[in-house]
Amino acid sequence: MQEPSARPAHPEREALLEQLIDRLATLPSIGRKSAQRLAYHLLSRPLEEVSDFAATVSEARRRIHPCSVCGNHTEFDICRICLNPRRQQNLICVVEKPAEVAAFEKTGSFQGVYHVLGGCLSPLDGIGPGELRLESLFRRVTADGVEIIIALNTNAEGEATATYISQRLVGSKVRITRLARGIPVGSDLEYVDELTMLRALESRVEFQ
Ligand SMILES: [Zn+2]
Questions:
Q1: Confidence of residue 112 (pLDDT cuts 50, 70, 90)
Q2: Which of 5, 7, 81, 204 is least surrounded, with the fewest CB atoms within 10 Å of its CB?
Q3: Alpha carbon of 80 to ligand 1 centroid (Å)
Q4: Alpha carbon distance 200, 203 (integer Å)
Q5: 119-143, pLDDT tens digit by residue?
Q6: Which has the closest alpha carbon to 202: 107, 130, 123, 95?
Q7: Can you tell me the distance from the alpha carbon of 141 to that of 91, in angstroms, rounded to the nearest whole number?
């Protein structure tokens, strides 16, 4: 492979620019046109600024990992939500991914904690209970007076996961609730607006 800094006298094609655009286009919600715009933007900025940007991306990816209690993103062993003494440790909101924790946090009024499963059950994609952070959830709910709020997307995978959790907890004293309807079926919780999220949380219902 050609060194990026080396400049061949007779380039056959602008491979590096194409590669940059291809990479950017792999990002979510970035189409080919946006990728091109971002590439040209980056190339118009000072080298130092772009290097800093790249370093932050790589540093964040390297140092941020799942919280050892809830699975949310943290650069420490335990995240700031789990460590916050003002949060109710016996009210656990179960979500699929860290982006949804951020969505709930934006409402500013949830006083409980979270458990991030890291996905939902999907046998066709080879995702069984062993691939998700489920056992650590069951270990967290052994104390009395625990409520878990199932806040999973209402697609087939989310429903299967919710059912699995409730079945595993049959006979336990855990109260299981779920978000009230009102969140459009099949919509990604990550993108639901704060007010709708808050209402769904406040008027949550017993899981049947
Ligand atoms: Zn945590």
A1: very high
A2: 5
A3: 7
A4: 5
A5: 999 988 999 999 999 999 999 998 8
A6: 107
A7: 10
Average pLDDT, the chain: 89
Tell how far the Cα of 116 is from the centroid of ligand 1, in angstroms. Answer: 9
> Using CA atoms, how far apart are residues 187 and 36, in angstroms rounded to an integer?
29
Q: 113 C-alpha vs ligand 1 centroid, how far in Å?
A: 8
Is residue 73 helix, strand or coil? strand
E strands of 96-145, at which residues? 113-116
pTM for this structure?
A: 0.81
CA of 70 to the centre of ligand 1 (A): 4
Q: What are phi and psi of 113, to 5 degrees?
A: -120, -175
Beta bridge mates, 114: 93
- The rounded Å distance from CA 106 to ligand 1 centre is 16
Identify the H or E element spanning 74.
strand 73-74
For the stretch 58-101, pLDDT in tens is: 999 999 999 999 999 999 999 999 999 999 999 999 999 999 99
In terms of phi and psi (left: phi > 0; alpha: psi -120 to 50; beta: otherwise), the region of 84 is beta
Answer yes or no: is pLDDT of 187 > 90.
Answer: no
